[in-house]
C-alpha cells in the first residue's frame, strides 16, 4: 500500500502538549444556552432528493456501501438480492466467512443492521442478504458506575471557561453554507449516515433525528465560531467528545450487553447518557464535525480479536486518522478507576504511533492509498 508521510504542524503539538487537568467540580463557569424560539429553521421551499448506490459491487468496500444504502432506504428488515462482480464472487467463494465479516465491519450502517446472507445463487453472481432497520435499536442503557470527570487545561481554557454561547440555529452552522441536496432522515443512524455521505439532513419535528439535530446545534454553539479554523473547530469537538463522555467498559467486557438495542453503539449513547463504545463516540464526532463543515468519516475495522471504529478527518487538505477511544483511557487505582486522556490519537497516521495497532480497514480504499500517511 502506497503511503505518504504527512507531519503535523509544530504549532499543533504545542497546542495539545498540556497534560494539566481540572476536576469537574473545579470548573467555576458552566455553559448555558439561551432559549430560542426555533433552533431548526428550514426554508419552506426545500426540495428533497432520494439517494442510492449505483456503482459496480466488486469488492468488500463496494459491497458494504451497497448494503448501507439498502439499509438506509429500507422500510424495516427486508430480503435483498445484490448483483456482484466476478472478483467479489471469487472472493466470496474462496473465503466466505472473512469476506462477510469484513464487509459487516466496513459499512457505516452494515455493522449493526446486516443480519444474514445466502450464497446459493453466487455462481450466477447473486448474493442474497437480509438487512434493515429494526424498531428496537438504541432503546436500552447498560448499568454503569459514573467515573469522576476531568478536563484538560486546553479544553478548560478554550471551552469550559469561556462560557461561549453563539445561539446558532441549524442553518447558521458552516455545513449549510454549501449548496448541497437535502435528504429526509428520521432516526439517529440515518442522520449521521446522510451527513457522512455529504448531504444536508431534513428531519421532521416529531422525529428522533430532529431531537439530535437540536442537541448538536446547541453543543456546537458552545464549541465553535464561524471564523475558527477547521483545526481549532475539530480540536474543540474532539475534546468535547472525549472529556464529556465516558467509555462504556461494561459493554466492551460483557458480550451479553453487546446487542443492537444498546444505546452505547449509537448517537443515543453520547447524546442521552454521555456513555458509549467506539462506534457511538465516532458517530457523535461525525455528526458534530460535519455540521461544523469538517469532512469526516466513520471507519470500521476488524482486528485480530475484535472490531473497532475510528475516523478519517480532513484538515487543511490533508487526511488524518483520529481515534477518540484510544484517547480515553483508565487505570485501576485503590479499587477504582482513574480516567486518563491522551492526544496521541487526535490527528495521527494510518498506523498511528502505537506498534500494536491492528485495525486496518477496507473502508475508503482510495483514501487509504493516496491520502492517509
So how many helices? Answer: 13
Largest sheet: 3 strands, antiparallel
Helix content percent band: 25-40%
Q: How would you describe the oligomerization state of the chains in this entry?
A: single chain
Arithmetic mean pLDDT: 86
Structural class: alpha+beta
Overall radius of gyration: 21 Å
End-to-end C-alpha gap: 10 Å
Low-confidence stretches: 1-22, 24-34, 369-373
Please write the string of helix (H) and strand (E) elements. Answer: HEHEHHHEEEHEHEHHEHHEHEEEEEH
Number of strands: 14
Strand content: 15-25%
| Widest sheet: strand ordering | 2-4-3
Question: Your description of this structure?
Answer:
The chain is α+β, with helices and mostly antiparallel strands and 373 residues long. Helices cover 33% and strands 18% of the residues. The protein has helices at 10-16, 60-72, 86-94, 96-106, 110-113, 153-160, 188-196, 208-221, 230-244, 249-253, 267-273, 278-291, 365-370; strands at residues 21-23, 78-83, 114-118, 126-131, 150-152, 182-185, 200-203, 246-247, 275-276, 296-302, 307-315, 318-322, 328-333, 336-341. A hairpin with a 2-residue loop joins strand 11 (307-315) and strand 12 (318-322). Helix 11 packs across helix 12.
Blueprint of the fold:
Layout lengths: L9 H7 L4 E3 L36 H13 L5 E6 L2 H9 L1 H11 L3 H4 E5 L7 E6 L18 E3 H8 L21 E4 L2 H9 L3 E4 L4 H14 L8 H15 L1 E2 L1 H5 L13 H7 L1 E2 L1 H14 L4 E7 L4 E9 L2 E5 L5 E6 L2 E6 L23 H6 L3
Parallel strand pairs: 6-7, 8-9
Antiparallel strand pairs: 1-5, 2-4, 3-4, 10-11, 11-12, 13-14
Helix pairs in contact: 2-4, 3-4, 7-8, 7-12, 9-12, 11-12
Amino acid at each position: 500500500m502506497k503511503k505518504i508521510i504527512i507531519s503535523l504542524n509544530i504549532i499543533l503539538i504545542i497546542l495539545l502538549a498540556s497534560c494539566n487537568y481540572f476536576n469537574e467540580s473545579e470548573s467555576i463557569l458552566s455553559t448555558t444556552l439561551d432559549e430560542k424560539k426555533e433552533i431548526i429553521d428550514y426554508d419552506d421551499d426545500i426540495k428533497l432528493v432520494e439517494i442510492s448506490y449505483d456503482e459496480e459491487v466488486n469488492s468488500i468496500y463496494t459491497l458494504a456501501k451497497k448494503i448501507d444504502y439498502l439499509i438506509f432506504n429500507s422500510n424495516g428488515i427486508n430480503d435483498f438480492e445484490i448483483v456482484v462482480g466476478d472478483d467479489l464472487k471469487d472472493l466470496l467463494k474462496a473465503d466466505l466467512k472473512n469476506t462477510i465479516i469484513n464487509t459487516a465491519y466496513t459499512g457505516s450502517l452494515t455493522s449493526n443492521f446486516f443480519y444474514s446472507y445466502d450464497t446459493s445463487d453466487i455462481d450466477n453472481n447473486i448474493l442474497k442478504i437480509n438487512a434493515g432497520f429494526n424498531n428496537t435499536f438504541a432503546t436500552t442503557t447498560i448499568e454503569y458506575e459514573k467515573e469522576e470527570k476531568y478536563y484538560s487545561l486546553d479544553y478548560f481554557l478554550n471551552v469550559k471557561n469561556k462560557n461561549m454561547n453563539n445561539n446558532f440555529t441549524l442553518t447558521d452552522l458552516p455545513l449549510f453554507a454549501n449548496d448541497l441536496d437535502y435528504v429526509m432522515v428520521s432516526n439517529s443512524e440515518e442522520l449521521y449516515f446522510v451527513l457522512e455521505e455529504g448531504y444536508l439532513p431534513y428531519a421532521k419535528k416529531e422525529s428522533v433525528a430532529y431531537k439530535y439535530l437540536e442537541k448538536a446545534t446547541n453543543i456546537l454553539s458552545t464549541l465553535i465560531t464561524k471564523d475558527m479554523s477547521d483545526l481549532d473547530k475539530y480540536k474543540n469537538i474532539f475534546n468535547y467528545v472525549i472529556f464529556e463522555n465516558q467509555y462504556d467498559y461494561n459493554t466492551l467486557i460483557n458480550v451479553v450487553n453487546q446487542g443492537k438495542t444498546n444505546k452505547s453503539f449509537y448517537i443515543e449513547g453520547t447524546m442521552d447518557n454521555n456513555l458509549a463504545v467506539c462506534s457511538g463516540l465516532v458517530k457523535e464526532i461525525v455528526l458534530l464535525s460535519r455540521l461544523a463543515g469538517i469532512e469526516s468519516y466513520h471507519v470500521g475495522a476488524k482486528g485480530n480479536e475484535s472490531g473497532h471504529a475510528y475516523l478519517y478527518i480532513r484538515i487543511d487538505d490533508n487526511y488524518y486518522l483520529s481515534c477518540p477511544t484510544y484517547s480515553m483511557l483508565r487505570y485501576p487505582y485503590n479499587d477504582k478507576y482513574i480516567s486518563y486522556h491522551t492526544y496521541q490519537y487526535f490527528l495521527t497516521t494510518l498506523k498511528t504511533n502505537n506498534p500494536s495497532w491492528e485495525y486496518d480497514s477496507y473502508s475508503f480504499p482510495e483514501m487509504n492509498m493516496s491520502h492517509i500517511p
